[in-house]
Structures are given as structure tokens and as C-alpha cells.
Write a structure and sequence with these properties.
Layout lengths: L15 H9 L4 H13 L1 H21 L10 H4 L1
Helix pairs in contact: 1-3, 2-3
Length: 78
């Protein structure tokens, strides 16, 4: 995926969406650096990023769980 071409303004609120973009590597280097600094100094931002990490790990775990979804019909996979 390519990096965002529009850096977030420094006064933009830190949102879960912005942190998810950071996690996915979608932000330009300057914005990513600013957000990482913010996460290190702000407990609320750190908690949001930790929550996103947990969700990401839980979703990855579902990929290994055959019981997490019904079987795919044969006509769909054929």
C-alpha cells in the first residue's frame, strides 16, 4: 500500500482511524513520527493503539479458527 500524500495537520485530533492508518503503514513519515511521539507521551493515545493491536490480534486468531464461520458452500468455491 502507498503512503498518504497528505500529512495530517499537527493540531488534528488523534483518532482511532488515524492510529489504524499508522498501524497499516498508510501515513507519510512525518505524520507517522509525530503520531508515534504522541502515543509515547499520551496515555489515552497509547490505550487506543493498544486496543487496535488487540483487535488486530483477535481477528488474526479467527483466521485459524475453523469454527468462527460457517462452511463455504461448494458452489462458491468451485
Amino acid at each position: 500500500m502507498s503512503a498518504s500524500t497528505h500529512p495530517a495537520p499537527s493540531d488534528e485530533p488523534i483518532t482511532p482511524d488515524l492510529l489504524a492508518q499508522l498501524q497499516a503503514g498508510l501515513l507519510d513519515d512525518a505524520t507517522a513520527t509525530r503520531l508515534r511521539r504522541h502515543v509515547r507521551t499520551e496515555p489515552e493515545a497509547a490505550a487506543m493503539l493498544a486496543a487496535l493491536d488487540r483487535v488486530r490480534h483477535e481477528l488474526a486468531d479467527l483466521a485459524d479458527d475453523a469454527q468462527s464461520a460457517p462452511p463455504v458452500p461448494h458452489e462458491v468455491t468451485a
